[in-house]
Amino acid sequence: MQNCVDASQTGEVDLVMGNIAHGGYCVARLDGRVVFVRGALPGEKVRVRLTDTSKASHWFGHAVDIISADSHRVDAPCPVAGECGGCDFQHVDVSFQRELKRRVVAEQLSRLAGITWSGKVEAVDGSSDGLGWRTRMQYRSLNQRPALRRHRSHDLVQVPQGGCPIAHPAGRAAAETACRTAEQAIVMVTSCLTEDPEVSVIADGQLVSGGETMTAHVGQRRWKVGAGGFWQVHPGAAEALADAVVEGLNPHQGDEALDLYCGVGLFAGLLADRGVRVRGIEVSRQAVALARRNVPGGRFTAGRVERVLPRMSTKANIVVLDPPRKGAGKAVIQAVARTSPRAIAHVACDPAALARDVRLFDGYGYAPRSIRAFDVFPMTHHVEAVAVLEPKV
């Protein structure tokens, strides 16, 4: 059954949900048109409020009433989960969230790269209930309280009393304090978790409390990280991804390695500890300065990877690349292939971008030996993956 309510009159329609899609939506159909529905689960019948009907090919909607619920549906732990754009899956049992993400990764790899993937989305240490994990949060101030954007909107929603449930508790009080001082200020709260957690607050680009740098830990090793720079936001993410990269590359003493989009040198540091000579490229000059501090034996260049790497004549035994959400793209992948590595570890935060990059690598003679996915963004549709590629035989 598709349409029990006249959507043109009410803006609401009853739909039966199809498969999960990239972005956290379920796919439904209305009079031959695709409708992407937020807040639903595959197989459910829900009343959908249409929120965007501007495109001829597809519309967007939000579930406002569950007519027949899936067994994996739960009560959202956050009272503003249906309004705030920060979470997609608070209505889903945590273990089934990983199954939904697995389906998305498999579908993207199949459709965009022609790969059949039978892996799973692995849990990581630090948030068995999917809450209290996010160590970096960016808020706006609304009525002197922390607020986040509504889904696909610039409108704001105040976080509940006690703080955003997925934000790490170490930073919640600092967010409340900072947001009392300036209406509409952009407030970034960063926590680094040790026995005595460090918390820094940046408001409208200015450090207002805490240090400019913080200390992050992976295993027994430490890295200095910029309070406003990049580091994995889940407490268990850096270690899980680093283990997957190092295990997948199997570095040898004396190897030459490239760490592309290297940030402050997470992967470079672990490879250097194993006797690998590392070169890193990163666009952020602040991050490069910290990488040189974190990995004194490495060589690091500030610049865009797509511009710097093609000009380098170096060969590499192993390569790590951790590109932004859009992926590495053709120019970078072509330049990586020219270095003739025996193994490449591609870290990706978007399964569609990973699939596109894997397809490009295939054209240069590299195919995935393994692809692992990790649930380092619980309650959201996001998923991180590590693909290890080797030359095709």
UniProtKB/TrEMBL annotation:
Gene3D superfamilies: 2.40.50.1070, Nucleic acid-binding proteins, Vaccinia Virus protein VP39
Assigned keywords, A-Z: Methyltransferase, S-adenosyl-L-methionine, Transferase
InterPro entries in the cross-refs: MeTrfase_TrmA_CS, NA-bd_OB-fold, SAM-dependent_MTases_sf, Small_mtfrase_dom, TRAM_dom, U5_MeTrfase_fam
Keyword presence, Hydrolase: no
Active-site residues, record numbering mapped to chain: C349
Gene Ontology biological-process entries: rRNA base methylation
S-adenosyl-L-methionine is among the record's keywords: yes
Binding locations of S-adenosyl-L-methionine: Q232, Y261, E282, D322
GO molecular function: rRNA (uridine-C5-)-methyltransferase activity
Ranges where the TRAM domain occurs: 4-65
Family annotation (PROSITE patterns): SAM_MT_RNA_M5U, TRAM, TRMA_2
Family to which this protein belongs: Belongs to the class I-like SAM-binding methyltransferase superfamily. RNA M5U methyltransferase family.
UniProt-recorded name of the protein: Class I SAM-dependent RNA methyltransferase
Source organism (scientific name): Cutibacterium porci
